[in-house]
Amino acid sequence: MLAKRIIPCLDVKDGQTVKGTNFVNLRQAGDPVELGHAYSEQGADELVFLDITASHEGRKTFTDMVQRVAAEISIPFTVGGGISELRDVERMLSAGADKVSINSAAIRNPHLVDEIAYNFGSQVCVVAIDARLDENGWTCYLNGGRIPTERNLFDWAREANQRGAGEILFTSMNHDGVKAGFANEALARLAKELSIPVIASGGAGCMEHFRDAFAIGHADAALAASVFHFGEIGIPELKEYLRAEKINVRL
Fold first, then answer.
1. The CATH number of the domain where 82 resides is what?
2. Which amino acids are annotated catalytic?
3. What is the domain extent for residue 29?
4. Parallel, antiparallel, or unpaired for β 16-21 and 24-30?
5. pLDDT in tens, 164-179
6. Under a CB-based contact definition with an 8 Å cutoff, are residues 24 and 11 in contact?
7. Whether the predicted pLDDT of 27 surpasses 70
8. Is 24 part of a structural domain of the chain?
9. Cα–Cα distance for residue pair 55/53, rounded to 1 Å
């Protein structure tokens, strides 16, 4: 059985790591290069770097910062934000990324998933989905949670899977930054319906929440930001706890 992964996420705006609640009320959390280095040293399994306003502002991810982070870490590195064509993917991989995360661009142009998988391999393509549970079910959003779409979380995740995505990174907008636990019911359904790994995002507040994402939500990886950035949970301690709870993690 593959080990479950712990993934810190650097949400970057204007060159600084930030974190909000329900996608708003952002506060600064530190230098992304320093944080990336620290997480690599602490035993994180992967690192995700998201330029959170790139799609909204219509610009490209800061290539130089990706290069600086990549030079400081020795773990797999996923980059997202403003990636909308193959040239963007090539630029990020050349800068040191191992994978790219596409979100708004993939919903607007689903064929982009096919193109990335065909040209670079499925393992490079992470399809990120920001979704909110409302009266119509789980609705997918664009541009960092600003624009609702007609797409349903599960339908879109299945389509992305079929088109060649290597992983699904699902962020529950209802749970983001609230620290009350992950969307385990939705995660479990995704895990059951998809043939690719699912990364849980949105809701981590304590070590038990990570355990539940794996044991109840059947996630393959759990991503978090503020609990790591502000020192509320240490990655070595989290992994020791999960191992004690019979969750297979790399120590």
1. 3.20.20.70
2. 11, 130
3. 5-244
4. antiparallel
5. 999 999 999 999 878 9
6. no
7. no
8. yes
9. 6
